[in-house]
């Protein structure tokens, strides 16, 4: 299947790290498809070199300087710059079918069966299930579709300011036309949803195939100690199951960081992996029950600490006894 490919996008070095881990996770789970990464001009040369060792094709895309139809569209809607960049995936017409995956996703099982689906197949968004989440979707590259998408962007913009709003508006019949284009949630399991419906995660989470680290805090936003296998960071902003985060960091530290060191050579760079001081020095201050309740209501639970899945399960077990 040389004419089928997984496609992702990295606009800077941080998202390039995500793309590296995504590519390695696809390789580790024995995909038979090609791997393609679209990169922006702000991705450094060492990062490009590492991506080139993981992906079959590294393609530079920069709609701001392209001079083509995307450039003309940008003049009318400069607010949609990143969206226009992502839509470049439809220009990969040397492939007959592709699966786009955001760089903040992680594959935990082989997903080649997605290529049995048709355009536009995607999983529902946990925030509004009548919309699909554009972090994982099946599509057919087409210059005609690309042109129509750019025109749609120019005329209608995006209701959420990004690519998801544009794509849901363009493929507006996704929710009603063909249930076969609704991917099961396990192909795009958002880390946020784990904590909004814990019983379902407990029932179906073991079948997850793709984890999507939604939210402002990405896996590469943390620090990691490879020796102790512990992460540190702002746990109040974390919105994911620690096990998946640890899986991301284990793959990144063992497979990606050595390649980055080789490419950077003597140049300094921030890998995020280092020996960390004892946890007590970084432990968040204790909070009152009222403040903890308020943080829960604001969606700021301590998912890595006292409000972790394991802690909640233990508390429920005590209560039920």
From TrEMBL:
Annotated GO biological process: glycogen biosynthetic process
Region described as Disordered: 271-294
Pfam families the record matches: Glyco_transf_8 (PF01501)
Leading EC class: transferase
Domain of life of the native organism: Eukaryota
Function: Glycogenin participates in the glycogen biosynthetic process along with glycogen synthase and glycogen branching enzyme. It catalyzes the formation of a short alpha (1,4)-glucosyl chain covalently attached via a glucose 1-O-tyrosyl linkage to internal tyrosine residues and these chains act as primers for the elongation reaction catalyzed by glycogen synthase.
Gene Ontology CC entries for this record: cytoplasm; nucleus
Cofactor: Mn(2+)
Record localization: Cytoplasm; Nucleus
InterPro entries: Glyco_trans_8 (IPR002495), GNT1/Glycosyltrans_8 (IPR050587), Nucleotide-diphossugar_trans (IPR029044)
Pathway(s): Glycan biosynthesis; glycogen biosynthesis
Molecular functions (GO terms): glycogenin glucosyltransferase activity; metal ion binding
EC number: 2.4.1.186
Family: Belongs to the glycosyltransferase 8 family. Glycogenin subfamily.
Name of this chain's protein: glycogenin glucosyltransferase
Keyword set, alphabetical order: Cytoplasm, Glycogen biosynthesis, Glycoprotein, Manganese, Metal-binding, Nucleus, Phosphoprotein, Transferase
Primary location class: cytoplasm
Coiled coil feature spans: none
Alphabetical list of CDD domains matching this protein: GT8_Glycogenin (cd02537)
Catalyzed chemical reaction(s): L-tyrosyl-[glycogenin] + UDP-alpha-D-glucose = alpha-D-glucosyl-L-tyrosyl-[glycogenin] + UDP + H(+); [1,4-alpha-D-glucosyl](n)-L-tyrosyl-[glycogenin] + UDP-alpha-D-glucose = [1,4-alpha-D-glucosyl](n+1)-L-tyrosyl-[glycogenin] + UDP + H(+)
């Amino acid at each position: 299947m040389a004419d089928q490919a997984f496609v992702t996008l990295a606009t800077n070095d941080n998202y390039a790290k995500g793309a590296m881990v995504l590519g390695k996770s696809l390789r580790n789970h024995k995909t038979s498809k090609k791997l393609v990464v679209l990169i922006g001009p702000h991705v450094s040369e060492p990062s490009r070199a590492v991506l080139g060792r993981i992906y079959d094709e590294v393609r530079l895309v920069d709609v701001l300087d392209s001079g083509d139809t995307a450039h003309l569209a940008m003049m009318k809607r400069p607010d949609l710059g990143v969206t226009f960049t992502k839509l470049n995936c439809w220009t990969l017409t040397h492939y007959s079918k592709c699966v786009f995956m955001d760089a903040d996703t992680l594959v935990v099982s082989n997903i080649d069966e997605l290529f049995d689906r048709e355009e536009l197949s995607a999983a529902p968004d946990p925030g509004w299930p009548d919309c699909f989440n554009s972090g994982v979707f099946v599509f057919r590259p087409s210059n005609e579709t690309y042109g129509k998408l750019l025109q749609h962007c120019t005329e209608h913009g995006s209701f959420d300011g990004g690519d998801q709003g544009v794509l849901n508006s363009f493929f507006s019949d996704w929710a009603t036309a063909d249930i076969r284009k609704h991917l099961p949630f396990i192909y795009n399991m958002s880390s946020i949803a784990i904590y909004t419906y814990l019983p379902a995660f407990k029932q179906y989470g073991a079948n997850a195939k793709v984890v999507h680290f939604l939210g402002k805090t990405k896996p590469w936003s943390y620090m990691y100690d490879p020796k102790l296998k512990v992460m540190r960071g702002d746990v109040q902003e974390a919105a994911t199951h620690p096990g998946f985060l640890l899986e991301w960091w284990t793959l990144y530290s063992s497979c990606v960081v050595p390649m980055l060191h080789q490419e950077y050579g003597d140049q300094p760079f921030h890998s995020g992996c280092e020996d960390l001081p004892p946890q007590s020095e970084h432990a968040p201050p204790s909070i009152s029950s009222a403040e903890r309740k308020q943080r829960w209501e604001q969606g700021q639970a301590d998912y890595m600490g006292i409000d972790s899945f394991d802690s909640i399960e233990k508390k429920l077990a005590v209560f039920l006894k």
